[in-house]
């Protein structure tokens, strides 16, 4: 890994990692925080999100699959807590950082679409990774691997006439049902997640010069990130985008 580890991440993750590293000094997560008060440190808000996930897991030594390990903080905690925890990601750079931080963990360089396991999992976890997988493919593959799924992620809430890379929530739920999964829990966390966007919008202008010097961004790229973030925040505010905790059980 380089002395500046955020250099090794793909754009724009390298930008988010850069800002978090310089603001928070110790970065444990790349996922959204769930804020409960104004001015709350983002690390505390991110920890709240992980706590919501952990409290829904069966006791150790259950067998778990963490899809999209990020910085592998959650995977390491699960392993240390006695779980038989396996992580997957197609991103070799994230795996390299995870192993540099935590040493030996059960991490496979693979996409969920192609992942196979001889043993089933008690729970499959998607913490902001389900949005990158076609919903039908996700649930068809999950049907072969588990009877329980936990999802923390962003969704498009309806057809608002905007092109969206996010999965439409209604279609996601239909795909689950068609593969034999029933929705057992749904919590709307949109208001708590949205301040994460504000966190980065407020800091991008402050870090403009350093992002250009340290990471090699152009002025145009910084402007694009600010404009994109502002638009994204409006999509949250208007209800076009939302953030949900979902649980599914196979019938």
Explain what this protein looks like in three dimensions.
The chain has a 7-stranded mixed β-sheet with strand order 3-2-1-4-5-7-6, sandwiched between helices. Helix 5 (135-143) runs parallel beside helix 6 (169-178) and helix 8 packs antiparallel against helix 10. By secondary structure, it is of the alpha/beta class. Strand 2 (84-89), helix 4 (92-102) and strand 3 (107-109) form a beta-alpha-beta unit. It has helices spanning 13-24, 42-54, 73-80, 92-102, 135-143, 169-178, 190-193, 195-203, 208-214, 219-237, and strands at 63-67, 84-89, 107-109, 123-127, 148-156, 181-188, 241-250. The chain has one domain: Rossmann fold (3-Layer(aba) Sandwich), CATH 3.40.50.
CATH architecture: 3-Layer(aba) Sandwich
| CATH homologous superfamily grouping | Vaccinia Virus protein VP39
- Helix and strand pattern: HHEHEHEEHEHEHHHHE
Could you give the distance between the termini? 45 Å
Given the C-alpha coordinates, what overall shape results?
A: globular
The tally of helices reads 10
Q: Which percent bin holds the helix content? A: 40-55%
| Strand portion | 15-25%
The CATH C-level class name: Alpha Beta
Determine the CATH topology: Rossmann fold
Any idea how many domains? Answer: 1
Radius of gyration: 18 Å
Quantity of strands, as a count = 7
Order of strands across the main sheet: 3-2-1-4-5-7-6
The structure class reads alpha/beta
Characterize the biggest β-sheet.
7 strands, mixed
| Nearest-integer average pLDDT | 93
- Flag low-confidence runs: none
């Amino acid at each position: 890994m380089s002395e500046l580890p955020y250099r090794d991440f793909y754009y724009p993750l390298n930008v988010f990692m850069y800002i978090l590293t310089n603001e928070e000094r110790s970065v444990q997560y790349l996922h959204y925080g769930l804020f409960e008060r104004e001015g709350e440190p983002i690390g505390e808000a991110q920890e709240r999100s992980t706590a919501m996930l952990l409290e829904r897991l069966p006791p150790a030594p259950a067998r778990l699959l963490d899809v999209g390990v990020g910085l592998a903080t959650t995977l390491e905690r699960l392993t240390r807590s006695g779980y038989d925890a396996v992580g997957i990601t197609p991103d070799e750079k994230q795996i390299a950082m995870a192993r540099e931080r935590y040493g030996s963990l059960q991490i496979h360089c693979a996409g969920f679409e192609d992942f196979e396991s001889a043993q089933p999992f008690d729970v499959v976890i998607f913490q902001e990774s389900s949005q990158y997988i076609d919903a039908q493919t996700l649930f068809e593959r999950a049907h072969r691997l588990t009877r329980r799924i936990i999802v923390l992620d962003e969704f498009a809430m309806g057809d608002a006439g905007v092109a969206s890379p996010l999965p439409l929530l209604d279609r996601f739920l239909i795909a689950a049902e068609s593969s034999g999964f029933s929705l057992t829990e749904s919590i709307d966390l949109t208001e708590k997640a949205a301040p994460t966007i504000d966190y980065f919008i407020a800091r991008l202008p402050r870090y403009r010069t350093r992002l250009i010097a340290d990471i090699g961004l152009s002025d145009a790229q910084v402007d694009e990130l600010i404009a994109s973030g502002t638009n994204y925040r409006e999509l949250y505010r208007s209800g076009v985008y939302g953030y949900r905790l979902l649980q599914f059980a196979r019938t």
